[in-house]
């Protein structure tokens, strides 16, 4: 009997969070180990379905870098990375679109639907969702006083997000699952970092939350201690003194961009934890780093 009472108390504890986030939009970047480990995949799908049933509107943006890498290897195509970005040729973009917009996207949709959800897979090209331009990386070198312009090929930088298709899906009670591919200025397909897409989509929707699922606990200080709550001001200080750097830097910048655009709160959480989404949303303690404006 005590076990049943404990379960009931857990549900009661979640009630304030259910009331707070009812009819609110939460954009989730889904990636890392949570997309690979079978137990974590099931956990993610159940969390998303639960969110929808209690009145939250989840919007999923997924990655797929490892899956793209494996497929490129099968085709005998070599990958080149510059500062973490995959240089994407015309030959590669066909594989990227096939993997992200096809196999990976539909696997996620099927998993959510198998657990009682009503998910629909789209890419940034569908419904004219994501407009982008080719990304040109600028790097300052010590050898010359002129900046070096690096061409990453068919890699996109988001210009605009047209949320109409997402609004229609929301009205019909569907869960959008978005592959991070956009349409370029000349109609070409562009490969876009999923964190950037999630941030831009959350900004355009004025979402209540942006949640980035990663393979680390969250943002840490110089001693290696997890920082559970940070303000925009504190984050900028940590960037300036290089506490935040390397792979965490673009993620926190995505959070800062979303906050600037009007997103309520942003979170960087450990997707290696079972039911990470519900633990972050429905508990006071959370499991990762929450970043807010103040």
Overview in brief:
The chain has 294 residues and is an alpha/beta fold. It is built from 9 helices and 14 strands.
Descriptive overview:
The protein has 294 residues and is of the alpha/beta class. The chain has one domain: 3-Layer(aba) Sandwich (Carbamate kinase), CATH 3.40.1160. Helix content is 41%, strand content 26%. The chain contains 9 helices and 14 strands. The chain has helices spanning 2-21, 38-53, 65-74, 90-114, 164-171, 194-205, 232-240, 248-260, 276-282, and strands at residues 25-30, 57-62, 81-82, 85-86, 119-123, 130-140, 147-161, 175-179, 181-183, 189-191, 209-214, 229-231, 265-270, 289-292. The protein has an 8-stranded mixed sheet with strand order 5-8-2-1-11-13-14-12, sandwiched between helices. Strands 3-4 form a two-stranded antiparallel ribbon. Strands 6-7 form a two-stranded antiparallel sheet. Helix 2 (38-53) links the parallel strand 1 and strand 2. Helix 2 (38-53) packs across helix 4, helix 3 (65-74) crosses helix 4 and helix 6 (194-205) packs parallel to helix 8 (248-260). The longest helix has 25 residues, at 90-114. The radius of gyration is 19 Å and the shape is globular. The model has no long low-confidence stretch (mean pLDDT 91).
